[in-house]
Amino acid sequence: MNETTDRIEKQIEIDAPVSRVWRAITDHQEFGEWFRVNLEGPFEVGEMTRGAITYPGYEHVTMEVIVEAIEPERRFAFWWRPYAVDPKVDYSNEPRTLVEFILDAVESGTLVRVTESGFDGIPAHRREEAFRMNDGGWAAQVVNVQNYVQDNL
To answer: Model's pTM, two decimal places?
Structure first.
């Protein structure tokens, strides 16, 4: 449940060790498998990585992220432009939102919390749709990473 329109929060428990979940989230090739993006290079703090989305219907979209933090087996964070999918629109002057993955060991394996914040900075004319689409997107992506990890232990 969201108490604000500025942040999306999702979580899921994955029946796998933190080290395995961490690798699925921070290795750019494994990330690409479950997220459905063909990233050109690894995640490095302060660097941008990009790649073509491979999800059907969004193949025209290039995902670009700037890595904010890699705190091994604990926190991975990046900046991106949410729901920037219209090829006729230049999103380069828009602010980015911050996506954070926080991992915690729990009895069943790993608790993954995903937070995306900063929607209040998105231009008003597209803020609601970006929030709605990413809210649904993260609901699906936490299941995708769970399935990916459990299928690839």
So the answer is: 0.95
